């Protein structure tokens, strides 16, 4: 079934892609099974999902377009999940999670057991975790307690490599953390004080850059390339930034986001496509070259827009003229979209 819901306005940017809906995957669970996070592994062969249901579900990425419901397997977790991250270099066997109870747990998928745990946020929700691509034993967690904790899985639990409080005056929650996936030493934090902070992973005392421009809390920050950061805020916009020059490149508007986490994902192999969810129950795609969306799709045409929202998105990080975007909804449903570059 082909979907061609490109936004047609006089200022519509050029869309070089055709997207179609290729699968709808039901969780076979109550509507309270909201999906909070989607994460493809580093080999692009597995997709993990987490959220309110206290489960990590694992899907074979190659089978996604063929599925109608169900996953390959799942594991129960002790709390609701807000973040998942595959551990680099683990052969897709290890995945870390951050939960509503403020705990970080690393799971061995072969054994289906937790193998590492950290509890350094005083019971305050962990919004985001990440691992360093340069040193996969090094991880970080961002929390409602106003701190980012950096830790080493080779060390005993309770021992932090570094603890950072970006908003020293107001103790604003840290909403997201990401190491530079291109191998650089930088780690970026997005905070409720409307700022994005960049740190040198080996020298965490002071930020090396602070990016200001959002009007409300920054919910996500992602590296689009080694120098460009994409951020999302509950001010209803995305922004791209030149980190080294500390300047805004472009602001993106079209989706609706005033109070929820709606996901942000960048397709690094596809010429700069970005995607996010929306509180009007649609999934949006932006091209880094234009401030307006190049494509949007309603998530559930049968339900009124105010009854649901798109809560998470993830690109499969493949290269070439074809792409896969997965979006998750507050109703627990996954939708898989296939894109093909136009001739």
TrEMBL record:
Main location: cytoplasm
GO cellular component, one term: cytosol
MF-aspect GO terms: ubiquitin protein ligase activity
Subcellular location: Cytoplasm, Cytosol; Nucleus
Keyword set, alphabetical order: Acyltransferase, Cytoplasm, Flowering, Nucleus, Repeat, Transferase, WD repeat
EC number: 2.3.2.27
Record keyword rRNA-binding present: no
Pfam family, one: WD40
Record-level GO BP terms: flower development; regulation of protein-containing complex assembly; response to UV-B
Protein name: RING-type E3 ubiquitin transferase
WD repeat ranges per the UniProt record: 211-251
SUPFAM superfamilies, per the entry: WD40 repeat-like
